């Protein structure tokens, strides 16, 4: 039986640039690096950057993305820092909780989100998506 998400691996085209983005700008801890990759972390997240010169660096048209949690108090300063660094945004927030949708240097779609599954479900109970069903009691 699966117990949790183990790690995420992102293909990157310029390892030094990506390590700088995730370490300096997003403030993940750099745990290890080597010629072809790096391990970074946050509490509960192990992120592997893997050098892949064949990586396409244009964002896909789909909604696949990786969301990081952030507190409501830290959110405005985070958004200001990202915009000041010239980070590209890829979507406006359309759901519960404050969100900032942005791209990393290899156009991986990322999000900084205020809230969690409980707050999302509570909002959805108030305004459910079309065809939405709930499988537990509030």
TrEMBL record:
Its EC number is 2.5.1.18. It comes from the Bacteria. This is Fosfomycin resistance glutathione transferase. Residues 4-115 form the VOC domain. The keyword Calcium does not apply. It is an enzyme of class 2 (transferase). Gene3D superfamilies: 2,3-Dihydroxybiphenyl 1,2-Dioxygenase, domain 1. The lineage of its organism: Bacteria, Pseudomonadati, Pseudomonadota, Gammaproteobacteria, Pseudomonadales. GO terms for molecular function: glutathione transferase activity. Keywords: Transferase. It comes from Pseudomonas fungipugnans. InterPro entries: Glyas_Bleomycin-R_OHBP_Dase, Glyas_Fos-R_dOase_dom, GlyoxalaseI/FosfomycinResist, VOC_core.
